[in-house]
Amino acid sequence: MHRRRFIFAAASAAGAALAARAASGEHFDIVYPQIRPGRDVHAAFALATLDLAMKAANATYTTRQLELVMERGRALAELANGTTINLHWTSMEAQAERGLNVVHIPIHRGLIGYRVFIIRQDRQPDFDRIETLDDLRSMTAVQGLGWIDTEIMRNAGLAVQTPSSYETIFKMVEGKRVDYFPRGAVEAYPEIESRRETEPSLAVENRLLLAYRSDFLFYVSPNHERLAAAIARGFTQAWRDGSYLKLFNTHPYIQNALKRTNLGGRRILRLDNPFMSDEDRAIPDMYWLHL
């Protein structure tokens, strides 16, 4: 029998009661995985959101990043086991959410599902000719192994390659073995800038936006329900009192990305995401950034 998941779209009375019990002065030791070396910049906003939620829940906590590097599948398996880590943030997906306590509020307001393309700079003229999703099907994308984004794109008829190594992805784009690497709006610029010496020809494509409903959620180990309840209550409260939106509207990780990617000025190619859970689909519209 699966552990209950904490749903913010329509929390049950029992879930609300559990969250309330978790909210009063508890202390939690939080351990989360290292996704890959050098990705601390990507963790900054998620950790700031976690801090906001825990403070709003009146809970104290410590955090520790596991030294062992884990890709998404390994991290989710370790989270389910609950012996090495008890928190992870990753893409919403019905299959991944089963058996875990999941906080159904998008951490980045959907910016992970607004995807710009990392390309070779000299390939921009090729993308200037793309006007429709059918045009994009003539191109070959690359995504990480085990990412739900791969399945979302393939479901839309887009060609996607999945190398076994994340670092190989950038070499494939640089070496013209693939055409583009879609990344969440908050991810693209920090990643190419960290690779200026090794892949100097990479750039962010300047006019297209692949858009589908997706974002990172907080996933909590099944034997840490009180932690999930505390995050749940605190995140909800942070939305209600405006402190989350204040963080979102001022945090450099978010605001630099919005300024540089110019999402509103791009041609949007929309995809369906059929891999969301019912709870994902029930997330209220106010939690999403709409374009």
Distance between the termini: 39 Å
- Say which CATH homologous superfamily of the largest domain is assigned: Periplasmic binding protein-like II
Order of helices and strands: HEHEHEHEEHHEHEHEHEEEHHHEH
Per the CATH scheme, the topology name of the largest domain is D-Maltodextrin-Binding Protein, domain 2
Strand content: 15-25%
**What's the CATH class label of the largest domain?**
Alpha Beta
Largest pleated sheet? 5 strands, mixed
Helix content: 25-40%
Provide the gyration radius in Å.
Answer: 19 Å
Structural class: alpha/beta
Describe this structure in words.
By secondary structure, this protein is an alpha/beta fold. It has two domains: 13-109 and 215-258 and 274-286, 3-Layer(aba) Sandwich (D-Maltodextrin-Binding Protein, domain 2), CATH 3.40.190.10; 111-211, 3-Layer(aba) Sandwich (D-Maltodextrin-Binding Protein, domain 2), CATH 3.40.190. Helices cover 38% and strands 20% of the residues. It has 13 helices and twelve strands. It has helices spanning 13-22, 40-56, 72-81, 94-97, 124-128, 133-136, 148-155, 166-174, 188-193, 225-240, 243-250, 252-261, 278-281; strands at 27-34, 60-69, 87-91, 101-103, 114-120, 140-142, 159-161, 181-184, 202-204, 208-211, 216-220, 267-270. The strands form four sheets. Strands 5, 8, 9, 10 and 12 form a five-stranded mixed sheet that branches. A three-stranded antiparallel sheet has the order 3-11-4, with helices on both faces. Helix 1 (13-22) crosses helix 10 and helix 2 crosses helix 10. The termini are far apart. Residues 1-23 have low confidence and may be disordered.
